[in-house]
Amino acid sequence: MAARPPQDDAEEPDSITFGIAALDAPLDRADLAFPADGSEVVRALGDPDVPYDPSGRSMALSAALDEVNRERFDSEDELLDVLHPVFEERRQSGPTGLLERLRSLF
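RE: above sequence
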C-alpha cells in the first residue's frame, strides 16, 4: 500500500486567534482614533463577539469593556493591555473537561 504524496498546497494552515489577538485586524480596519472611550471603540468595531479561547467561546466586546475599570484609552496598546486580563480570566475559567482539553490540543 502506497502513501499519498503530499498535496502541493502553498497556503498556510488557518490559525486560530483569540483574546486580544482577535482584535488586531478589526482595530486596524476601524475608523478609530485614540484617545477613545469604550463606547467609541464599540461603535467603531460594531461590538463584535471576541473569541477568548481556541475552541471559539466568545464574549461581546462591550461586555469585556464593562469588566474593566477604565472609561478612556489613550492608545490601542493601552486598550489591548486592559482587555487582556478579562479574556485571560474567561479562558482560564472555562470548562476543563477531558473533551475540552483534547480540543485545546488541536
